[in-house]
């Protein structure tokens, strides 16, 4: 029996050693970064009455140091997630979901790209990123109790660059290529106007023209045809408007209305910056950036919306029997393979999971699944110039300077809507679209033959080949994640016939686009009152997925005796007024129904079964409200901490409440929709720029103890904006706090 006891004790000891190893190994094997070379920084952080920071410094680098500290004071929790992603360690924080991000980090070579490209950036840009990294290091060292992972800091400019390289491609849908390939599912790439039978004449302009002329328009005519895609993610959204002074009757107006997740790594953070080197800008960035991505300076401003050109091509590789070489033009080449360790947190332990990542030196990243080996090549691949381009954009002062930066094609994607104090407005369908050969026969939206070198393109199309509009005759521009051929109204819009189908420009409308186009076209003057009415519009057009749902609802036959509640819900929904304004008895029911149909059309997934989906909505309302017709504002809520407020707007309305989580009480708590809104006006008399803004919660997103954790929520719910403190005299007059931060030694 003694040997049994000894064996049991040995097993316990082995289990204990294993547990200790799994609980502690990850920080010791993680990538360790050398901090930037020491440089003395000093910045002043002045916070407005709403806690929004304006960061002052003698140099741009001083300001970037202060940006990191100000953001860390408000949301160090999320900044650490972003740093972990930039080091391939997010799985050690977020488990399996984080490990998927880490896999992509290794697959696309984010670190290798940053290591190679970061030193090539101009010295002042690198100084900016090193200063920002130094600010994060300074805060981390001063607040060790807040750290999530050991050895996550210090960081340097290269680390911040790796984060940019990793995250940017997902804004134009790289995940919709990688995800299906990993899962062995069909690709999800859109058809364009080169597809036979494509409905070329179904734009909002043509729809509206026919309606006004009293002609019938097929309500179920879809302006987009798509191949199977899957979930396109939660980053698809945003509205943007620019209106010239002749059309407003007053100021040049720019409205930035981004739809992003309200929390997390791609949630907007509002800030302003001003340096002695001429950098003076206010707007918003994402965690991990030293500069705003959108907003305005004294002279000009811009905002962005997500666009979805065909930016990625997939190649099936012809492999040898051993599976270690691929064929290209009758020659065999070795496939690069590398084993990486993905940390996967599970409770108190972190498992080391080995994964092999592949790469073709000719094509790019390679994914192996049950169907073979598939290489991916995408726009902006292995580039880091965007770090410099965004910085330069912040400091442009004229339309010409601004266009010069955009024309670099360094920023991989996103539409730009622009306005300036001279009264200019502009729209650029910005995208680093692959420079595919026009004279080669190929289905660029399918799986390409990886053995043909003539299908492997190099570089990006020239700026003059992408859609753009400068000062259209209509006097207005908009984008709501729609095709670039409906942007300025009938008579001012671009024609799709003028752009090669090889560019892969999407042909898609959203309900927001239909509504914006109609309302902008019908308005004789787009003054502030009219634009506010458009921005907060909650209506749906009966087109596309809305029509699909209602056509199915009208055809649905229900036995009223057997299922009276379902029949009652059908009748209630058929009487809906097509608005999500909290005024109608069917608004809550429609809210629960419509998002799934929107997602099915946008992602080309199967349309929900109308009866099953309606039954789910009925069950939800009866369980949590005991009735089918509660006020929508009782169902849809804006919640943060102890604050719980009613909301209006729906999925894909101009007042956007896009996605939500279902809380235990059955209420829907907004997680994605109208996020950072900024309304900018340059007076016609040449006076100072004036802007207003709002965030859904407050500046201190993850600091419950802060008065700025929830202090913008009521304004947000009430469709109100707060003043942006841009000029120094105004900043200091309304300052709630001010402090100098420095890394001086001694």
Model description:
- There is one protein chain.
- Residues 191-235 have low confidence and may be disordered.
- The chain has 746 residues and is α+β, with helices and mostly antiparallel strands.
- The protein has 20 helices and 27 strands.
- Helix 10 (386-394) packs antiparallel against helix 11.
- The protein has a ten-stranded mixed beta sheet with strand order 19-17-16-8-7-6-5-2-1-27, with helices on one face. Strands 3, 4, 20, 21, 22, 23, 24, 25 and 26 form a nine-stranded mixed beta sheet that branches.
- It has a domain at 2-40 and 61-172: Penicillin Amidohydrolase, domain 1, CATH 1.10.439.
Instruction: Look at the structure and give the CATH class of the domain at 2-40 and 61-172.
Output: Mainly Alpha
Give the biggest beta sheet.
Answer: 10 strands, mixed
CA radius of gyration: 27 Å
List the strand order in the largest sheet.
19-17-16-8-7-6-5-2-1-27
Quick tags:
746 residues
Write the layout of secondary structure elements.
Blueprint: H1 2-29, E1 42-47, E2 53-57, H2 60-86, H3 91-107, H4 110-117, H5 123-142, H6 157-167, H7 175-183, H8 204-212, E3 239-243, H9 245-248, E4 252-261, E5 269-275, E6 280-285, E7 294-296, E8 300-305, E9 312-316, E10 325-328, E11 331-334, E12 336-346, E13 349-360, E14 364-369, E15 372-378, H10 386-394, H11 399-406, E16 415-420, E17 425-428, E18 447-449, E19 468-470, E20 476-479, H12 511-522, H13 528-535, H14 544-555, H15 564-574, H16 587-603, H17 610-625, H18 632-635, E21 636-640, E22 643-646, E23 657-662, E24 668-682, E25 690-694, H19 713-717, E26 722-723, H20 728-733, E27 737-742
Helix pairs in contact: 2-3, 2-5, 2-6, 4-6, 5-6, 10-11, 14-16, 15-17, 16-17
